[in-house]
Amino acid sequence: MTQAERDALVNAFYQLRNGADLINDLATFHSDFFNFDNTADPTRLDIHFNLPDEPERDIFFAWHRMQMFEVEQAMQDINPNISIPYWDSTVDQSVNSPLWDENFMGQFDDDWGLNRNLGGNGELGTIGELNTLLGISDYLIFSDDTERGNIHAGPHRWTGGAMPTTASPRDPVFYLHHTFIDKIWADWEAIHQNSSFIRTSMLRYDGTYVFDGQTLPLVNPNNIIDPRAFGVFYAEDGLAVLDDYTVSNTYNAIENFYYQFLIEVRDGFEIPANTSCRITSVNEIVMLPGFVAASGSDFRAQIDNTQARTSGSAIVRNTKKFEALPSMRMVDFEGKKLGDDSSDIEVYPNPFLESVNIRLGQNTHSGRIVLYNMAGQQVKSEVFRDKSVLNLNDLRNLASGVYILNVVDNNGVVLHKVQLIKS
Questions:
Q1: Residue range(s) defining the domain that contains residue 130
Q2: What is the pTM assigned to this prediction?
Q3: Can you spell out the DSSP letters for 63-117?
Q4: Could you give the CA distance from residue 6 to residue 12 in angstroms, rounded to a whole number?
């Protein structure tokens, strides 16, 4: 980013705290609906930790993508050239990084009372851990391992202050971190192309939530699996590739693509008649075969020479400490994952091929064994009474993948949940 871009981003964060205070509203919502496991009402819809045993509730990646877009849209109302950059925490790992400079993210610590403790709790994720995630072929396992693992949880813990709490969106660096998490999802989807959601709406983005007098739209998470749905492209190594996209002006009267370094426009990037688009670089733009700007479109490609000559605008800071939030609490990112429940039950073999044996402890006498696939569909069920060892047979024809085995008592209470792998 140029200094002017950094200053514009910082000023936008400060401005979003004014008036209706979008930053505080999102932090409060995120905290209020973070996770309802182990509460009086664990079936309520929430944002986090619904995998692997509740895929029908999972919205982790899609919800945060929509959150990033909501904030970026608000920033672009202030300055159309703003895009939220991503913090690649597998590479940028120093407490002395320019990321934390007093003229960038560092100033918010004192101004907003964030109480960061950089590097004081845990380690950041590694490139090796990231590559392992990108190599996972099952979407639900990839999503769960990302959410609970070091690539996502590490920067929350490492930054300290608000970041390892349910109110982490209070810290502006949350948005740089989650933009990176969103890029990881985009990279994974480009490789595997099998992300999917059972839910067709999301908390906050269900067509009923009102912020600052405006009702936020209903968003089906399956419709935003590709970040191009929002006109979002991720640059890497000094190159932004714009492709496979049709300008529609759905969200902006003029769609604006701005990047400091090389922009390549190619392969199915189309600007139809009666639409408006600007592509701006500080350095270079290359139009390649496959790019189409139709007759009657309003299109301009330009080099922004002003960025090279300016050091940025003055920062208009505000000292606005956050108030106490009753729902705010520290987050146990790893938690108790499915399959950790080994008390009073033994399930083997796992992975399985054609049968599963369940050895029950002395506290379980009768009930039902139910096997679900990751779409929440029941694929096997057997009643038991006065047995300590049960057998689920005839499983050879099940598709390979992840399954959930529930042990249910006669009152319908789930006593145990175990994750199984069909090889």
A1: 3-230
A2: 0.81
A3: HHHHHHHHHHHHHHHH-TT-------TTT---TTSGGG-TTTTTHHHHHTT----
A4: 10
